[in-house]
Amino acid sequence: MFSLDGRVAVITGGSRGLGREMSFAFARAGAHVVVTSRKIDTCEAVAKEIQAECPGIRAVPFACHVGKWDKCNALVDFVYSEFGRCDILVNNAGGSPLYPSLSDISEEYFDKIMALNLKGPFRLMAAFGAKMCAQSGGSIINISSTETVNPNSRATIYGAAKIGLNYLTEAFSSAYGPKVRVNCIMCGPFLTDISKAWPMKEMEIEWKRSSSLMRAGKPNEVVGAALYFASDASSFCTGSILRLDGGAGRATYRDPKFNAKL
Protein backbone atom coordinates (compact mmCIF):
# COMPACT_ATOMS: atom_id res chain seq x y z
CA MET A 1 0.00 0.00 0.00
CA PHE A 2 2.87 2.37 0.70
CA SER A 3 4.87 1.50 -2.41
CA LEU A 4 5.78 4.33 -4.79
CA ASP A 5 7.41 2.11 -7.41
CA GLY A 6 7.95 3.91 -10.70
CA ARG A 7 6.33 7.15 -9.64
CA VAL A 8 7.90 10.58 -10.02
CA ALA A 9 8.01 12.87 -6.99
CA VAL A 10 8.93 16.56 -6.85
CA ILE A 11 9.94 17.87 -3.41
CA THR A 12 10.52 21.59 -3.00
CA GLY A 13 12.95 22.53 -0.26
CA GLY A 14 14.15 18.97 -0.75
CA SER A 15 17.81 19.41 0.08
CA ARG A 16 17.56 19.76 3.86
CA GLY A 17 15.34 19.34 6.89
CA LEU A 18 11.95 17.73 6.35
CA GLY A 19 12.33 17.95 2.57
CA ARG A 20 15.54 15.93 2.64
CA GLU A 21 13.91 13.24 4.77
CA MET A 22 10.96 13.00 2.38
CA SER A 23 13.26 12.88 -0.65
CA PHE A 24 15.10 9.87 0.77
CA ALA A 25 11.89 8.19 1.99
CA PHE A 26 10.18 8.45 -1.39
CA ALA A 27 13.25 7.08 -3.16
CA ARG A 28 13.43 4.16 -0.71
CA ALA A 29 9.76 3.48 -1.49
CA GLY A 30 10.60 3.27 -5.20
CA ALA A 31 9.94 6.76 -6.55
CA HIS A 32 12.22 8.76 -8.81
CA VAL A 33 12.72 12.14 -7.17
CA VAL A 34 13.38 15.70 -8.25
CA VAL A 35 15.23 17.44 -5.43
CA THR A 36 14.76 21.17 -5.71
CA SER A 37 15.74 24.20 -3.65
CA ARG A 38 17.37 27.54 -4.37
CA LYS A 39 20.96 26.24 -4.19
CA ILE A 40 21.91 23.75 -6.88
CA ASP A 41 24.99 22.48 -5.04
CA THR A 42 22.98 21.22 -2.07
CA CYS A 43 20.42 19.64 -4.41
CA GLU A 44 23.21 17.89 -6.30
CA ALA A 45 24.74 16.57 -3.08
CA VAL A 46 21.45 15.09 -1.86
CA ALA A 47 20.64 13.63 -5.28
CA LYS A 48 24.03 11.93 -5.37
CA GLU A 49 23.48 10.44 -1.90
CA ILE A 50 20.04 9.15 -2.88
CA GLN A 51 21.32 7.47 -6.04
CA ALA A 52 24.16 5.85 -4.11
CA GLU A 53 21.73 4.42 -1.56
CA CYS A 54 18.94 3.49 -3.99
CA PRO A 55 20.31 1.83 -7.15
CA GLY A 56 17.91 2.08 -10.06
CA ILE A 57 16.33 5.26 -8.75
CA ARG A 58 16.79 8.52 -10.59
CA ALA A 59 17.41 11.48 -8.30
CA VAL A 60 17.61 14.71 -10.26
CA PRO A 61 18.66 18.09 -8.82
CA PHE A 62 17.09 21.36 -9.95
CA ALA A 63 17.55 24.89 -8.62
CA CYS A 64 14.27 26.73 -8.14
CA HIS A 65 13.13 29.74 -6.13
CA VAL A 66 9.47 28.85 -5.68
CA GLY A 67 8.63 32.41 -4.68
CA LYS A 68 9.08 33.44 -8.32
CA TRP A 69 6.33 32.53 -10.78
CA ASP A 70 8.65 32.06 -13.78
CA LYS A 71 10.91 29.75 -11.76
CA CYS A 72 7.90 27.60 -10.86
CA ASN A 73 7.01 27.36 -14.55
CA ALA A 74 10.61 26.38 -15.33
CA LEU A 75 10.44 23.59 -12.73
CA VAL A 76 7.28 22.18 -14.29
CA ASP A 77 8.84 22.26 -17.76
CA PHE A 78 12.01 20.60 -16.48
CA VAL A 79 10.19 17.74 -14.76
CA TYR A 80 8.11 16.94 -17.82
CA SER A 81 11.11 17.14 -20.12
CA GLU A 82 13.05 14.73 -17.87
CA PHE A 83 10.29 12.27 -16.92
CA GLY A 84 7.22 13.06 -19.00
CA ARG A 85 5.07 12.95 -15.87
CA CYS A 86 4.73 13.93 -12.22
CA ASP A 87 2.82 11.76 -9.76
CA ILE A 88 3.65 13.44 -6.44
CA LEU A 89 4.25 17.09 -5.59
CA VAL A 90 5.35 18.13 -2.11
CA ASN A 91 5.14 21.87 -1.42
CA ASN A 92 7.67 21.89 1.40
CA ALA A 93 9.79 24.98 0.72
CA GLY A 94 9.05 27.80 3.14
CA GLY A 95 10.49 30.06 5.76
CA SER A 96 9.98 32.91 8.19
CA PRO A 97 13.06 35.04 8.96
CA LEU A 98 12.89 36.81 12.30
CA TYR A 99 11.95 40.49 12.48
CA PRO A 100 12.37 42.97 15.36
CA SER A 101 8.71 44.02 15.59
CA LEU A 102 5.49 44.09 13.58
CA SER A 103 5.91 47.79 12.83
CA ASP A 104 9.36 47.08 11.35
CA ILE A 105 8.04 44.62 8.76
CA SER A 106 8.71 46.07 5.33
CA GLU A 107 6.66 45.65 2.18
CA GLU A 108 9.58 43.72 0.69
CA TYR A 109 9.61 41.29 3.64
CA PHE A 110 5.83 40.84 3.48
CA ASP A 111 5.88 40.11 -0.25
CA LYS A 112 8.85 37.74 0.08
CA ILE A 113 7.22 35.62 2.81
CA MET A 114 3.89 35.49 0.98
CA ALA A 115 5.60 34.54 -2.27
CA LEU A 116 7.64 31.73 -0.75
CA ASN A 117 4.91 30.22 1.44
CA LEU A 118 1.74 30.87 -0.58
CA LYS A 119 2.19 32.20 -4.11
CA GLY A 120 4.73 29.56 -5.13
CA PRO A 121 2.73 26.60 -3.78
CA PHE A 122 -0.37 27.97 -5.53
CA ARG A 123 1.39 28.14 -8.86
CA LEU A 124 2.94 24.69 -8.54
CA MET A 125 -0.37 23.13 -7.48
CA ALA A 126 -2.16 24.78 -10.40
CA ALA A 127 0.41 23.78 -13.00
CA PHE A 128 1.35 20.29 -11.82
CA GLY A 129 -2.24 19.51 -10.81
CA ALA A 130 -3.61 20.33 -14.25
CA LYS A 131 -1.07 18.02 -15.85
CA MET A 132 -1.80 15.28 -13.32
CA CYS A 133 -5.47 15.54 -14.30
CA ALA A 134 -4.48 14.96 -17.91
CA GLN A 135 -2.57 11.82 -16.97
CA SER A 136 -3.54 9.03 -14.56
CA GLY A 137 -3.83 11.33 -11.53
CA GLY A 138 -1.53 12.15 -8.65
CA SER A 139 -1.05 13.35 -5.11
CA ILE A 140 -0.17 16.83 -3.86
CA ILE A 141 1.08 17.29 -0.30
CA ASN A 142 1.34 20.73 1.27
CA ILE A 143 3.50 21.34 4.32
CA SER A 144 1.82 23.84 6.60
CA SER A 145 2.41 24.85 10.21
CA THR A 146 0.65 24.88 13.56
CA GLU A 147 1.42 28.61 13.60
CA THR A 148 -1.93 28.75 11.75
CA VAL A 149 -3.79 27.68 14.90
CA ASN A 150 -1.46 29.25 17.45
CA PRO A 151 -1.16 32.90 16.33
CA ASN A 152 1.75 34.84 17.78
CA SER A 153 3.72 37.96 17.02
CA ARG A 154 6.90 36.06 16.04
CA ALA A 155 5.60 34.62 12.78
CA THR A 156 2.62 36.74 11.80
CA ILE A 157 3.08 36.89 8.02
CA TYR A 158 4.27 33.28 7.85
CA GLY A 159 1.24 32.08 9.79
CA ALA A 160 -1.11 34.06 7.57
CA ALA A 161 0.48 32.57 4.46
CA LYS A 162 0.19 29.04 5.86
CA ILE A 163 -3.48 29.62 6.69
CA GLY A 164 -3.84 30.43 3.00
CA LEU A 165 -2.09 27.17 2.15
CA ASN A 166 -4.55 25.26 4.34
CA TYR A 167 -7.37 26.89 2.39
CA LEU A 168 -5.75 26.07 -0.95
CA THR A 169 -5.44 22.44 0.11
CA GLU A 170 -9.20 22.11 0.37
CA ALA A 171 -9.92 24.29 -2.66
CA PHE A 172 -7.59 22.34 -4.96
CA SER A 173 -8.83 19.00 -3.66
CA SER A 174 -12.26 20.01 -4.95
CA ALA A 175 -11.02 21.58 -8.19
CA TYR A 176 -8.80 18.67 -9.26
CA GLY A 177 -10.74 15.74 -7.87
CA PRO A 178 -11.34 12.92 -8.49
CA LYS A 179 -8.02 12.28 -10.25
CA VAL A 180 -5.75 14.36 -8.00
CA ARG A 181 -5.73 14.14 -4.22
CA VAL A 182 -4.55 17.19 -2.27
CA ASN A 183 -3.70 16.94 1.43
CA CYS A 184 -1.73 18.89 4.00
CA ILE A 185 0.62 18.10 6.88
CA MET A 186 0.39 20.84 9.50
CA CYS A 187 3.72 20.57 11.28
CA GLY A 188 4.55 21.58 14.81
CA PRO A 189 8.12 22.05 16.11
CA PHE A 190 10.72 19.87 14.38
CA LEU A 191 14.44 19.77 15.13
CA THR A 192 15.65 20.84 11.67
CA ASP A 193 18.35 23.41 10.89
CA ILE A 194 16.06 26.24 11.94
CA SER A 195 15.90 24.88 15.50
CA LYS A 196 19.58 25.73 16.00
CA ALA A 197 18.48 29.32 16.60
CA TRP A 198 15.88 28.37 19.22
CA PRO A 199 16.40 28.98 22.97
CA MET A 200 16.42 25.21 23.47
CA LYS A 201 16.45 25.04 27.29
CA GLU A 202 13.39 27.25 27.57
CA MET A 203 11.60 25.42 24.78
CA GLU A 204 12.28 22.00 26.26
CA ILE A 205 10.69 23.17 29.50
CA GLU A 206 7.67 24.41 27.56
CA TRP A 207 7.32 21.15 25.58
CA LYS A 208 7.37 19.13 28.78
CA ARG A 209 4.70 21.39 30.25
CA SER A 210 2.31 21.70 27.34
CA SER A 211 2.99 18.93 24.80
CA SER A 212 1.52 15.44 25.06
CA LEU A 213 4.78 13.83 23.87
CA MET A 214 6.88 16.38 25.79
CA ARG A 215 9.32 17.05 22.96
CA ALA A 216 9.84 18.37 19.46
CA GLY A 217 9.77 16.11 16.44
CA LYS A 218 12.76 14.51 14.76
CA PRO A 219 12.99 15.29 11.03
CA ASN A 220 12.42 11.66 9.99
CA GLU A 221 9.14 11.61 11.91
CA VAL A 222 7.46 13.44 9.04
CA VAL A 223 8.05 10.43 6.80
CA GLY A 224 5.09 8.27 7.89
CA ALA A 225 2.55 11.00 7.18
CA ALA A 226 4.21 11.91 3.88
CA LEU A 227 4.28 8.30 2.64
CA TYR A 228 0.65 7.89 3.64
CA PHE A 229 -0.49 10.88 1.61
CA ALA A 230 1.79 10.09 -1.34
CA SER A 231 0.80 6.44 -1.68
CA ASP A 232 -2.32 4.39 -2.34
CA ALA A 233 -2.68 3.95 1.43
CA SER A 234 -4.59 7.25 1.41
CA SER A 235 -6.62 6.55 -1.75
CA PHE A 236 -9.85 7.79 -0.11
CA CYS A 237 -8.27 10.81 1.57
CA THR A 238 -8.26 14.28 0.06
CA GLY A 239 -8.71 17.82 1.36
CA SER A 240 -7.40 16.69 4.76
CA ILE A 241 -5.14 18.63 7.10
CA LEU A 242 -3.16 16.39 9.44
CA ARG A 243 -1.84 18.00 12.61
CA LEU A 244 1.64 16.55 13.22
CA ASP A 245 2.89 18.25 16.38
CA GLY A 246 3.27 15.70 19.17
CA GLY A 247 0.18 17.01 20.88
CA ALA A 248 1.53 20.53 21.33
CA GLY A 249 -0.66 22.77 23.45
CA ARG A 250 -2.96 19.93 24.47
CA ALA A 251 -1.45 18.94 27.81
CA THR A 252 -1.53 22.10 29.90
CA TYR A 253 -2.57 20.18 33.02
CA ARG A 254 -0.91 16.96 34.12
CA ASP A 255 -2.16 14.87 37.03
CA PRO A 256 0.62 12.73 38.57
CA LYS A 257 -1.94 10.00 39.28
CA PHE A 258 -2.41 9.42 35.57
CA ASN A 259 0.96 10.39 34.11
CA ALA A 260 3.77 7.98 34.91
CA LYS A 261 6.43 10.45 33.77
CA LEU A 262 5.66 12.95 36.51
Automatic annotation (TrEMBL):
Molecular-function annotations in GO: oxidoreductase activity, acting on the CH-OH group of donors, NAD or NADP as acceptor
TM stretches of this protein: none
Family annotation (Gene3D superfamilies): NAD(P)-binding Rossmann-like Domain
Presence of keyword Nucleotide-binding: no
Keyword tags: Oxidoreductase
Family recorded in the similarity comment: Belongs to the short-chain dehydrogenases/reductases (SDR) family.
Record organism: Hirondellea gigas
Full protein name: Short-chain dehydrogenase
PANTHER family: SHORT-CHAIN DEHYDROGENASES/REDUCTASES FAMILY MEMBER (PTHR42760)
Matching PROSITE patterns: ADH_SHORT
Pathway: Lipid metabolism; fatty acid biosynthesis
Keyword flag Oxidoreductase: yes
Domain of life: Eukaryota
